[in-house]
Amino acid sequence: MTEELTPFFEALLFVAERPLSTAEAHHHVGDLLLAMFGPTKPAWELLRKAAAEAPRDASILTSLARAHWLTAYLPGAKIDDALARASQFLERAKALTPEDAEVLTMDGHLHLARPDLDLERKQAITEEITAARKAYRHAIRRDETMAEAYFGLGNTHLLQDSGSQEAVVAFEAAAYLLPLD
After folding, report:
1. Global pTM value
2. Closest CA to 105 of 59, 73, 168, 71
3. Contact present, 42 and 9 (Cβ < 8 Å)
4. Chain segment 132-177, per-residue pLDDT in tens
5. Residues 98, 139: contact at Cβ < 8 Å?
């Protein structure tokens, strides 16, 4: 009987292959906390330590962008500040790995966050959704197994329905691939 590995056990297997640096350990645990519990104080501390130890690691910078993006959704959050900080970290990651599927997916999330959090700006919403779709499609072209990109692409159609079948296809692909993540 084979069971799918959780990210925690996948990380343990990765550790068995080679020792992690301190920055990698802080990043993996911080990213795991971020995924499981959101932008908590322990997740922030570990991600900041990782960034201090490896300031040019695109994966760490993307995790910090994700943490700021998630913060924008918290009650009472300063949305513009959180999204601006997320954009700063993402731009640094994009400068290092512009074709990375995770970076491109996060780019889509940031474009989608503004219309998701501020539904009053109709023209800006259309532009942001178009940019989000472009980023998600680019991420999918780079890595066809990136379930999160398919899910994000489907979500753009929830905010602005064009009648396209793309939403259904994207959600079906995400549902199929999700166990692979």
Report:
1. 0.70
2. 59
3. no
4. 999 999 999 999 999 999 999 999 998 888 788 998 999 999 999 9
5. no
Task: Decide if 84 contacts 71 (C-beta within 8 A).
Answer: no
Position 181 pLDDT exceeds 50: no
| Token pair for 29 | 């645990």
| pLDDT number for residue 6 | 65
Cα 88 to chain centroid distance, Å, stands at 14
What is the DSSP annotation of the chain?
Answer: ---PPPHHHHHHHHHHHSPPPHHHHHHHHHHHHHHHH-S-HHHHHHHHHHHHH-TT-HHHHHHHHHHHHHHHTSTT--HHHHHHHHHHHHHHHHHH-TT-HHHHHHHHHHHHHHHHH-TT-HHHHHHHHHHHHHHHHHHHHH-TT-HHHHHHHHHHHHHS--S-THHHHHHHHHHHHGGG-
Collapsing DSSP to helix, strand or coil, 146 comes out as: coil
What CA dihedral angle connects 36, 151, 153 and 88, to 10 degrees?
Answer: 10
Please report which confidence band the pLDDT of residue 8 belongs to, taking 50, 70 and 90 as the band edges.
low
Structure token pair of residue 174: 């995400």
Buried/exposed 112-144: b ≥16 CB within 10 Å, e otherwise: bbbbbeeeeeeeebeebbebbbebbbbbbebbe
